Amino acid sequence: MIEFKVIKKSKISRARVGILKTEHGEIETPTLVPVATQGVVKTLDSKEVLETKTQILICNTIYLHFRPGEEFINKAGGLHNFMNWKKPLMTDSGGFQVFSWGFGREYQVGKILKKEIENEVRWGQQPKLLKIQEDGVIFTSPLDGKKIFFGPKESIKVQEKLGADIIFAFDECTPPNADYEYTKNSLLKTHTWAKMCLDVKKSKQALFGIVQGGRFKDLRIQSAKFIGSLPFDGFGIGGEFGKDKKRMSQILRWTINNLPENKPRHLLGIGYLEDIPRIIKEGVDLFDCIVPTHYARRGIAFTSEGKIDLTKKHPRISLDKNCSCFVCQNYYRDYISHLYRAKEITTLKLITFHNLYFFNSFVEKTREQIKKGKF
After folding, report:
1. Which of 92, 165, 171, 275 is catalytic?
2. Which residues pair with 286 in a beta bridge?
């Protein structure tokens, strides 16, 4: 189980600082939750991740179910032992893959609709690569093409075997081009699944319910009130977030205003650097995102001067003169960009380490600003 306490509330925004206690240590919120999809932050070992100021990781339930399997991990002593991570862990439910492997892949869209799409997803429509049913979803394995059924009972059972501190209820993450009727019916399904997850859970793990409702105000409020009324230990805020970042702030406000004050709120899958102040000001406590690691593998470093493209030649200067991470203290841009262009894998570790350290430091400074009444 977990304990959560708000220790400081901002007087100029909805931001807050809290302490989240788990069996594997305390987390000071707000905080970034880096993504360790298959039990690893790509290119880094667990000791290196710890040195980036990371407090908690999130692993992917569906991927780990497909390979190596929850039974295999359970026999190894659970995820913490399996990946040699002594700090807190989360696992997602598989609900995001309902979107990303389904309509997200089909329409090439993410959680925020950055381009206009003529065709809306309408009620009764099915994605081409999976089948969404009333009791769960039929997935096709990306490894061997094998079809598997995954519903709320299966999701909780797998997550219990994996053994993370915090697990999530199974839901359907709707695409940003879903119409009102589709979103409304999907929401009813997600709410039914949420109650089923509570009913079948046997472990002492903390279970977070997920609020959906897409871009529709009445559905977001309805979902927040319903999920907030259930005995979850915390809440995830999922689904799509409209056409732009301003709309995302509105959706967060509709949602958070209708959730209990005394429980943690986790924003699922959002966390570009420019997003972070916005979502923290709305009262988000935790948020997971692949941005720092995903961009690193494409040669992009985040710095106090902005994004640096290390796929190009650079002079012999520090990656970021204002950063105290071991990369910035020991290596220069010319060397790191040389390694990238020479396709040496060490460069991926160096940029990933720096990006995670930079993001975590950015959030750390934000927490300090909240404490001082400046955010």
Report:
1. 92
2. 31, 266
User: Would you say residue 358 has pLDDT above 70?
Assistant: yes
DSSP string, 19-53: EEEETTEEEEESEEEEB-TTSS-TT--HHHHHHTT
What is the pLDDT at residue 108? 85
Q: How many CA atoms lie within 13 A of 360 on its CB side?
A: 22
Chain-wide mean pLDDT for the chain?
Answer: 95
Q: Measured between alpha carbons, how far is residue 214 from residues 77, 127, 186, 288 in Å? A: 38, 17, 10, 19
Take residue 233 and report the two structure tokens written for it.
Answer: 């230990």
**For a pLDDT cut of 90, what percent of the chain falls above it?**
87
Q: What is the pLDDT of residues 15-49, one digit of tens each?
A: 999 999 999 999 999 999 999 999 999 999 999 99
> Which one is catalytic: 165, 171, 275, 288?
288
Residues forming beta bridges with residue 4, ordered by sequence position: 20
Global pTM exceeds 0.85: yes
Q: Is 244 noted as a catalytic residue in this protein?
A: no
Reduce the DSSP state of residue 368 to 3 states and report it: helix
Mean pLDDT of 246-265: 96
Looking at domain 3-289, does it have CATH number 3.20.20.30?
no
CA end-to-end distance (rounded Å), the chain? 30
In DSSP notation, 206-248 reads EEEEEE--TT-HHHHHHHHHHHHHS--SEEEE-S---SSHHHH
Question: Strand, helix or coil at 146?
Answer: coil
Known catalytic residue at 288: yes
Tokens 């797998």 correspond to 158
Q: Where are the domains of the chain?
A: 3-289
User: CA dihedral in degrees (246, 251, 257, 261; nearest 10)?
Assistant: -100
Give bridge partners of residue 303 from the DSSP assignment: 306
From residue 138, alpha-carbon distances to 45, 133, 147, 196 in Å are 33, 8, 6, 18
